Predict the 3D structure of the following.
Amino acid sequence: MSITVGDILRVVASFVWDDGEINQNVFNAVIGGSGGPFTDDDIVDDAEDWLQQMYIEVISDMAPEISGSACYVYVYDSVDDDWDEVGTIGFSFTPTGATDELPRGVAALVNAYTSDPDVQGKKYLPAFIEGAVQNGLFSASVLVHMVDLLGVWSAPFSGAVSGASWIPAIWSPTETNAFAMSESGAASAIPAYQRRRKNNVGI
């Protein structure tokens, strides 16, 4: 299998805590521009590089009790209405936060917007540290880091390995379509909470 212009990708950033519990963030992108087809391995390498560039923005805000585990990449199959695996690669990421981790259910929330006001994307960033919070809110410097992550997440880019044009998007299960991100959004100063939805997966 290879990836072609117009394909919709799902990129899963998988983290693991020291006790083995898993957290995952899911991202989407559309392959735009021209050229291709692109090899699966090259696309997977680009996806992992994208994750690295995003999470490095908050590396000092996250606790070292969690670390990157794997990057999973899938492509949307419009015929069967499901996601076919493209490949998996290790995701090497070790946070450097210097204070204790916040309670595991607490997350940093980043919202991303698209041209359709009904389609937005949310990312619950795990394992932020107590030092990131002041008077019950994420500090100004931490909010800057979260916005910087949003900037990397939403900005189109050219894959360093494949040369493919990546257009970050938000997948709408209702519309069965991917909506290009508008490169705007918001970082919540209020610590968020996301309940676990699968056994041993989530926060």
About this structure: The first helix runs from residue 40 to 55. The CA atoms of residues 72 and 88 lie 5 Å apart. Helices lie at 40-55, 140-154.
